[in-house]
Amino acid sequence: MIPLFHDFRGERVLVFGGGRVGYRKARRFAREAEVVVVAAAFADEFEPLFEDEGDERPPLSPVKARIDPSDVGTWLDRAAPALVVAATDDAALNEAVERAASERGVLVNRTDEHGGRDAGSVVVPATARDGNVVVAVGTGGRSPALSRELRKRIEPELAGAETVAVVTAELREDLKRRGLPAETRRDAVRAVVESDAVWRAETEEGSKKKATEIAERVLGD
Ligand SMILES: C[C@@]1(CC(=O)O)c2cc3[nH]c(cc4nc(cc5[nH]c(cc(n2)[C@H]1CCC(=O)O)[C@@](C)(CC(=O)O)[C@@H]5CCC(=O)O)C(CC(=O)O)=C4CCC(=O)O)c(CCC(=O)O)c3CC(=O)O
Ligand SMILES: NC(=O)C1=CN([C@@H]2O[C@H](COP(=O)(O)OP(=O)(O)OC[C@H]3O[C@@H](n4cnc5c(N)ncnc54)[C@H](O)[C@@H]3O)[C@@H](O)[C@H]2O)C=CC1
Question: How many CB atoms lie within 10 A of CB 97?
Answer without folding.
Answer: 31
